[in-house]
Every structure is written in C-alpha cells, then in structure tokens.
Amino acid sequence: MTKEEKKLAPRYVIGVLLLAAALAILIYYLFFYREDSSFAVKDYPSVKHVLFISSYSESFETLDSQKAGIGKAFSGSNIQLDIEYMDMKRFNNKENEDLFYQSLKYKLNNFERYDVILLGDDAALEFAETYQQELFAGIPMVFFCINNAENAIRAGENPYITGAVEELYLKDTLDLAIKFQPEATKMVAIYDSTLTGQGDEKRFYSVKDDFPGYEFSGINSSEYTLEGFGEELDKISEDSIVIYMSRFEDVNGNLYTIPESVQYIVEHTRVPIYRVSVAGVGEGLIGGKMVSYEKSGYLAGSIVLDILNGADVADIPVVTKGEGQYCFDYQVLKKYDIDFSLIPKDAVVVNKSQTVFEKYKEILVPVLLLLAVCLCILFILIVDNIKRRRLMREIQKSHGELQETYDKLIITEEKLKQQYEENKNYIKYLETKEEYILYQAEHDYLTDLPNRRAAMEMLNRLIAAKEECTVIVMDIDDFKETNDAYGHACGDEILRETARRLLKLTDDRLFYASRLGGDEFMLIIKADQMKQDKELICQIKQDFAMPIVFDEKKHYIRISVGIACFKGDAADASELVSNADYAMYASKKLGTNEWIYYDAGMKDEALKRKNIKNILSEACRNDGFYVLYQPQVDAVTGMLDGYEALARLKDHAISPAQFIAIAEESEIIILLGRIVTKKVIEQMVTWREHGMELRPVAINFSSKQLQDRGYVSYLKDLLEENNISSNLIEIEITESIFLNNNEKAMKLFEDFSSIGVRLALDDFGTGYSSINYLTYIPVEKIKLDKSLVDIFLTEGKDAFIENIIRLAHCLGLKITVEGIEEKHQRDRVRDLEGDYIQGYYFSKPISGEDVELLKNPIK
C-alpha cells in the first residue's frame, strides 16, 4: 500500500463505521419499537395536481435527472404529477406547437384545474407565456433549466411566474481550460439556432470581457450542412479552447442527439472539447463544471411546495445562481497529457482504469465481511417484523369485513332506488359525451366550422350520388404577416370572424362552409349554376369589405379565391379540391382579392413551378448557382463605379424572372441570399489577389429575407474573415419589404448601418408610395426602374425623369438609371445630371473573370 493510499484508508474506515451506526439505529427501531396505534385514523391532506410541461421528449438525455430531482422534492407530499412533452427538440416548428396546443387545450378543458404548472426549458416557458391567459389564467407557474437568462428574468416580472435559470458555469470552466491549455489564444463555442442554442450563444459572448486578449468566435451548426459543419470543425487550430454547448440541428433541418453530436465533434477536432452540461461526458469530451439537472429539478419542486403551502408566487424571486460540480473524463485527460494536479479536489472523474475496490481491497474485504454479518442479523429481524405486521393487517382486514357486512344489512329500499336513478343518469351522460366527442372529431376547435375531414366526406357523398356541385377554396391574403405583426390573438379573431361571415351565407342556400386548416376555408355549393355562383361571389365580396375590429384596430381582409365545378364526371373529392387550390394559387399571382375558375392549364403551371422549386432546392444543396456582375458607370465620365450581383442557375435554362419569384414563395430565397452573398465575397477576394482595385458590389435583398434574422451577422462575419471593407457592399431593397413589416424592416436597416453597409432603393417609381419611404429610410441611392426609362426617356416626356433626378438630389441621394440600351438614352441621362447608368449599352451581366478584362472608362 502506497503512502497516499494509507492516508486515504482512515476515511473509508470512518465511513464504514458511520454505516454500521446507521444500521444499529435501524435494528433498534425494528426490534424494540412497537406502535400501539395500529387502528388510528390518519388525516391525509387533499391531493394537489401539478402539471409538468417539458420542452422535449421523454427520451431526452437530461429529462430523467430533472424528474428525479422533482421526485425527491415531492417525496412525502400528496401530489399528483402529470407530464406533457412538447418534443420541440425534434420538431421545432409551428405545426408541432399548434398540435401540442390543441391536445393540451382539450385535456385542460376535460380535467380539473391544476394547482401549479412546472415548465422545463426555454420552449415550455415561451409556450406558457404565449397561452397564459387562454390556458393557464390565474395558475402559478414555475420554470427551470432556462438557458436564456434575459427571457427568464423578464418572465419573472409576471406576478404568476417565477423559477430558476439554468446556470452555465462558463467562466469557471474557461478559467480551468486556460490552466489546462496555457498556450491557447482563442475561445470557440459550438451552438445552434434553437431556443436553447440562442441562449447558449448569448451566454458565451457575455463572458468575453472576462477574458481580455482571447479571440472569441462561434460555430452555429444550424447554418451548415453536416459536411459543412465538419469542415468548420477541421479548421479549429490547436491554440483554441473549444466548448460544446448545443448542437441539435443543421441547416437542412436534420436533428441530432447529444451522443451523435459528441462523436462527430470529437472525430473532427484535435483539441479537448469542454462541456458545462453532464450529457456527453464519458463519451469523448474532457468535461468542465457541470449543471446538475437533478438539483435544478429539486429546486423547482421545492418552489412548487412553497406555493402549495401558501407562498405568493409574486414574492418568490427568480433564482439565477445554482450549484455545480466539476466532472472530467480520465481517458481524455490522459490523451491530452493534462496535469492531474490542476483538477479541483472535489471533481468527479469518470472512466478511470482502476476501481476504488481494487485500490483499497485490503481494508474493504474485512469490513465487508463484518457488514455481511450485520445484514444477516438485520434480515432475521426484518422477517420477524414482517410476520408481526402481517398479523396486524389480518386483524384489520377481519374488522373491515365485519363492518362491511353490517353496512350491507342496513341498506334500505330507498337507497336501492336512488342508485337505480343514478345509473340511468350516468348512462345519459355517457351518450351525451359520445355525441360530444363525435362532434369534436368533425369540427374545427377554433371556428366551430366543419373540418377538412367532414368536408371531404360531404363532397365524396355528392360525387358518389352524381350531384352537380361547385367547390370554392378561399385563402386570407397576408394572414401570416398580420399574425406576426399583431399576435396570435388577433389572428384567431380574424379566423373566427371569417367563419361567422361564411356561416351567414348558408341561409336560404344549398351551401356548406368548412375550414381546411390554417387560413384556408372551403365552400361547397350543391348545384352548378353560374348565376348563383356569381351572386354568391358578390355577396362574399360585400361581407368581406367590412373591416374586422380587434383591440380597437380595424383590419381589412382580402382573400384569394379558386373555383372548381363538378358536373357528374369521374373526378374524386381530392382532385376537385386540388383543382380549386390550383385556381386559388393562380388568383394569388394576379394580386389580392381575386376570383378565378379552374382550367387545365393551371395544373400544368403548378407542376411546372413545383419542378422549378425542386431544381432550386437541389441547386442550393449542390452548388448549382453562379453569379454574374453588371457594371454601373459614372454618367458623365463613363468611369466604372461598381457592379450589381445577379444570380443564375448553372445547369438549367430557367430565367431569373422565373426562379427568383418561385424562390421568394418559400424559404429557398433565404438560402439563395446567403449563397449569393458568400460567392460575392469570395469573388472580391479573388479580384484582390489578382491585383484589381475593389469597387462596391450591390446585392439584392428580398422582403422574404426578413425572416433570416442572422443574415446581418452572417455578412459581418464573412467581411471580417476575408478582410473586406463593409463600405464595398451595397444592399438593394424594394418597397415591398415594408408591406406589413415596417418595424422589422427599420430594425434591419439599423443593423446594416451598424456594420457600415450601404442601402439602395431598387425599382424606384413602380410603387405608389416610394417618395414617402425616402423621407425616413436610410438609403444613399435610388435606382430608377427600366420600365420608366422605356416610357419617359423619350423626347417630350423626359421632364418626368428630370424631376425624379432633381427630387433625389434635393434629398441628398444619388440616382442610378437602369435599362440604358441606346446612346441617345445615355446622352440624355448625362444631360439631365443623373449620377450613374446601368444597362446593355455598356455591358450585359458578365462573369467575375470577364470583369477583370474591362477597360476603364467604359465606352
């Protein structure tokens, strides 16, 4: 035995002695203590009901520890704990949240009121805040394991909400990592864009000021494919301290468990990977100071007990500090040759090669033998105690049976009659409940209209009977924007009022109204009479011309409508509804508030658009785009001033006018925007390497890209990584970006300005309110649309162009005139004192290589 082992030996002896003392007390209780109140009646408290809403699934790595902590806190209390799982880590989308909301709402409406709501992790807290008034009004709520501390503190200001933040011991872990890696100069965090990841990112950068001299950066897995993420990990240099915080998804929406992420990260890095959460330690991560999910659950459970015992939730402050535990992997410490003397004394070390029993078996063997003897004695006493208690239970049982027999003998005829009446009432209740469940299955919970299933059954019956009918599919225009701008409560009221107005139309008509889902409704007219259809259309237009008032604000509803008719042919219900859908989407292309009848060409057009959408998705995944650059020149000197970047498809002869419009109908435009941005920056780096003088490049920014909240940060990082000045990038926007998004748009402009990127207003003059926008948006340049040049840049009409140029100059703006294709057009723009010219007269869009061959000035 070594000296160190001899020093530790007394500690184990003391521990065994304490265990023996505890056994002695237990033996005394079992052997000598006899209770005399076997038949005493105990006063049990009433059952309290607590609902635990978890953000994740039952199989999520940290959930068992959370439930164990809650269980310890509730031990001995008369509490019934129910658990509902949102599963937002695997299905982080609005559809999943809506399904969870519908399911929970149904359960809450059919179950007695809960006394307290427990909220596990960020998604559950956000859900509870959103639906507090509708689902949890007046019920205390306790959150825990929240990553976004700002959201938690803000939520704690609500008089019905309190809880605890999931404290991440970032600073403690990074302090120790510096001791482990004294040569390190960089700190890199791995996170994603989930709610958990957003909180992790904020916390990582919040400690940046505590480590001056270290370069901080992050890898957001949500912005990369699996392969791209691996490439970013491979780039991490050996002078980096890397901390893995969260990585549950990639840019394609693929989901990953913690073990999968740990394995992939370890395979692609050459440095230790630190962790501030226990999940993953022992599987390749070195470790760090950990969050205890069991203690977090215990703390939340204790707060619940305080509330159930009379404490006012408004008086309970949000807990922002917790207890942590250092935990490390022995094998990883050895792999990176870490000095074990640097490990804190109270740290837990896993994956050790030698067990405690192997180290101290000389002491433990005789002690365990003694313990075995004690256990034998204890077993004998327990058996005796069990026999005694069994005898007492038999006596109690006999007493109970005698009492039960006596009670049966005194049941009167009146009681039997009462029981009979109660049974009849219960049977009626069951019949009513069955009718209710059937009604719920066939009707929409929000609008009380028949749902899609009921409507399709109705339509199938009409078609099977060869009855002529007309299907009308309606979609509320810009509903999502209204919902985002004014909240779900406003959106729900618009849907309910829409349903009420449709129900009014059913009077005196062979008419059936239903909600297909979302903001889409379907009407079925049980006759194919065009005159009646036109009367109905006029009636609907009149009804929807009236505004819907919510929260003292008027909302004017516009709808796109598609119409398809069945005249006894072989079409089925699904095909008929699809035809009406095709017509409805065709009406959207024409603008809002349009009505269109289906024709066969619409289906072909829809399939063609779907094919183009598939091509675009494939191109986003496999580098299927390239960028051309159209020069912009000084109107007076002809000197090259800059370029506009224009996206093109590599392997398909599809015009930008086609594929850009289709990309803007989906999330593809967000990916395409980032692809074009990255290719532009890479091209500028190539130009610089070839000795070219860099000039500004304009990048188009769609209104749909407002949803890309990380775009400005993405652009900023690209510029910094490649040492490109931000004033060489110009973002071109159109006035469509302001429709229902004014507040978001202004925030975006502020973000662009903060990093030094310039703004230009494209397609000026094509909208009805462009001049109004110029009074408050921070653009430096406007671009005059080609359609105005073709109409007004002619003799006798060019005063219009001249006035627009003067207006721009009066506002301190530069103006670029697009679509210049003739010399006389160029000369006239110069005479009118326009600033810049762009068009085929100087150059068509050309490749980056051809840009290097341009001569300056351009003739």
From TrEMBL:
GGDEF domain span: 467-600
Cited InterPro entries: ABC_transpt-TYRBP-like, Cyclic-di-GMP_PDE-like, EAL_dom, EAL_sf, GGDEF_dom, Nucleotide_cyclase, Rev_trsase/Diguanyl_cyclase
Transmembrane segments: 12-32, 363-383
Coiled coil start-end: none
Keywords of the record: Membrane, Transmembrane, Transmembrane helix
PROSITE patterns the UniProt entry points to: EAL, GGDEF
Span of domain EAL: 609-859
Full protein name: ABC transporter substrate binding protein
Lineage: Bacteria, Bacillati, Bacillota, Clostridia, Lachnospirales
